[in-house]
Amino acid sequence: MTEAIIRPGSTGHSHGGAEIPLQTRSERLRSANPGDHIAIDGRDEQWRYLDQLRLAGLDTNVLTDAATELVFTAPSEFDLTLVDAKDDLFGTAGLPEDITSANAWAAANKASKITLTGEASEPAILKIADIKADRAAHIIINSKTHSRGTVIIDHTGDAKLAEVVEIIVGDESQLTVVSIQDWNDDAVHTSAQFARIGRNAKLKHIVVSLGGKTVRVTPTAEFTAPGSEVEMLGLYFADAGQHLEHRSYVDHAVANCKSRVTYKGALQGKGAHTVWVGDVLIRKAAEGTDTYELNRNLLLTDGARADSVPNLEIETGEIEGAGHASASGRFDDEQLFYLQARGINELDARRLVVRGFLNEIIQQIGIESIEQRLNEAIEHELTRSNH
Fold it and tell me: How far is the C-alpha of 108 from the C-alpha of 86, rounded, in Å?
């Protein structure tokens, strides 16, 4: 098991006394040791929207490494090896900030390390399908200098999985990582995804969450050198009883970097619940930063709830631009009227609006077969609606 590591800037806590409130997003405790993290409590901002019972023990149970249950297919520019904590890249992209990811880190003795060299015209696909309960996975994705390619992490079937993904984007490289959560209805999944982005590098990170009883994905991007870009995109569609939660964090730690965060979701059915929390930190040294984050939610029926919380923290005034926006609401009556005026019935008009709303994210994937599959999955979701 990896020993506990707490990075500088973290805030300690007391199990017996009063906790010290965090003054900035960067102060959050980061440790690979589950014992360093407090138990889940609704008073903790990290867990304020999620009942511990929905995690089905991923925070407290003894988990088993799922490394041998993962299936990898890729062109020759990619290579997969199993590595342990002695590997140079193990733990370099980030460390757990909550107890479920720390529990996964402790249980996954081996990491599936995907290395990209050269320019790959076809994607690498890591399939995580129908794995057994109480599993943990640790994935490392490393794009070498000047490389270019796409990695798809495809989650399907049944599972109870706590996951850690480390993404190292090498200097001058361009990497796309797509994480698809298309689980069966009873699946429970948490995924902490950490990215470190090198000089003049570009990361496109796409999260698609459609299936599962409880899904919680927490992507983090940290700039390490000037001239880099990150685009964090997300799409989710929640049905009755589903909880889909996404918490993005962009750390502008150096000068002259650009970030764009866009998450869009649709909800239908009683008890459908989505959460998006977007944190952006612009540190004092990050002059010339250009950042914007956007979250939009479309509520298709009564009884659904979307929580949306954008946070922007700025420590320097010498920036190119910074902003955020959030909106949640019902259908645009003008759009529906326009379509119905052209002979389209109300039900089909509503479906067209939803498809157009979500397709903006899907088409960013750039893999035709994946885009077609996701569009079909959304069409299936829409057929469940009674409106």
Answer: 13
Which structure tokens are listed for 281? 């930190």
Burial of 105 (0-12, 13-18, 19+ CB in 10 A): buried
Question: What are the residues facing 249 on neighbouring strands?
Answer: 220, 279
Q: Which amino acid is at 20?
A: I
Alpha carbons 187 and 165: distance in angstroms, whole number: 19
Closest CA to 133 of 152, 99, 161: 161
Mean pLDDT of 95-107: 97
Per-residue model confidence (pLDDT) at position 223: 98
Torsion of CA 43, 4, 62, 214, to 10 degrees: 40
**Mean pLDDT, all residues of the chain:** 90
| Separate counts of helices (H) and strands (E) for the chain | 4, 19
Q: What is the DSSP string of 283-315?
A: -TT-TT-EEEEEEEEEE-STT-EEEEEEEEEES
Tell me the angle at which helices 368-383 and 346-362 cross, rounded to the nearest 10 degrees: 150
- Closest of 320, 162, 306, 166 to residue 229, by C-alpha: 320
Residues 6+ apart with CB under 8 A from 352: 339, 344
CA pair distance 146, 118, nearest whole angstrom: 7
Q: What are the tens digits of pLDDT across the range 184-198?
A: 999 999 999 999 999
**Which among 181, 162, 311 has a CA at the least distance from the CA of 237?**
181
β-sheet with 148-157: strand ranges across: 71-73, 124-129, 148-157, 174-183, 202-211, 229-238, 258-267, 290-299, 321-329
Per-domain residue ranges of the chain: 25-330
Q: Give me the residues paired with residue 265 across strands.
A: 236, 297
229: tokens are 């870009």
Pairing of strands 135-143, 111-116: parallel
